[in-house]
Amino acid sequence: MKVLQITTSSKGGAGIAALRLHNALRAYGVASAYLSKDLTIDFHGNHIADEFFAYQKPSIFQKVFRKIEHKFFPSAEQKVQKQLQKLKEDLTYEMLSTPYSSYPLEKHPLVQEATIVNLHMVSGILAYKRFFSIVQKPMVWTLHDMNPFSGLFHYQGDTDQNSNVFSEIEHQIRAYKKQCIQKSSLKAVVGPSQWMTDLAIQSNVFKSETTFKTIANSIDKESIDVSGLHKLKTNLGIADDRLVLLFIAHDVNSPRKGMDVLVDALHRIDALPITLLVVGKGSVVVPKENIKTVSLGVIYDPHKMQELYTLADAFLLPSREDNLPNVMLESFMVGTPVLSFKIGGMATHIQEGITGMLAPDITAERFANTIEDFAKQHSQYDSEVIKAYAKTHFSPKLQAEGYTELYKTILV
């Protein structure tokens, strides 16, 4: 059995989660390979120089032919792209992608060598119609967001927000995806959270005989040297009497990640001295005497991130929509509780008084109350208990066992 993990990029939440699955399977004895635009690992575990996704300059003939084709015989993709160009200025979204691609992914040597293809987030590299009609090997799709069973957007919030402008083309693309998937050899769909699995089932995009399964992402249990934390705390200007809260997002101002809710919540907290550490693109300021905000920018060093998770009294995850974010698992791994809303994978894994606290409603008032309640009892949280929870529920071995069992089932 040779399983190929395919994702657009090795960076970002989906790429990191897919790479962790790849490593978990290899450690478990399964031949797994990994394919993305920026990282390729073969079935022997070798990192290879892969020119497959490299840009190839078209010849003059190709340029002329494409111009003629685009003007007089536009493809379905070109028609959609033309519509998008007209509408994009009126759209607000976190991410948008089409089910088209110029990459002949079905011809990649690793795709041809694989016994099973495990798709992840494949926007921009997989042409639905061509790939699903040509590749007839058993497939599994791990859902990192809603895009595979939606139209152009990746979360329902963006779909709803743009419905007035975009509903017709959104329905058109969703129908096109469904048609392609129905004709594919896709055998199973995996949701890292039960929330995502349920949404996939309810979507009615996948074939009736599709196997749906919930298997959590994994996180390696790593040790951290805490001897430098006092120095880090001093460097960041954090006084000992302040509650330290951490927020992380690729784009801190993404509406889905809820920074606006968090800022509003902090405005409602008067007496509690708080230091808010913010990691990601963009900066945040909360103009209140009792709130100190430290914007740290984008950090790629995993050791530095571990230090910040460990330094924080709590990790804040005020997302409006989220699946099973890596940041929650990373926080649990070092024993830091998480404060969030009762949605997605957070509703399953954040347990009151054990691994964190959940606000019952997605409002600034409720989140402010949750932060204040946590401040009164945060000393009662046991980091070793949280680490044990992470080890039990998100171990690479547990994930590898779940996927291996599924792979064997679809090969029958």
From TrEMBL:
EC number: 2.4.-.-
Pfam families xrefs: Glyco_trans_1_4
Alphabetic keyword roster: Glycosyltransferase, Transferase
Membrane-crossing segments per the record: none
Keyword Iron: no
Record bears the keyword Transferase: yes
Gene Ontology MF: a single term: glycosyltransferase activity
PANTHER family, alphabetized: GLYCOSYLTRANSFERASE (PTHR12526), GLYCOSYLTRANSFERASE EPSF-RELATED (PTHR12526:SF637)
UniProt name for this protein: Glycosyltransferase
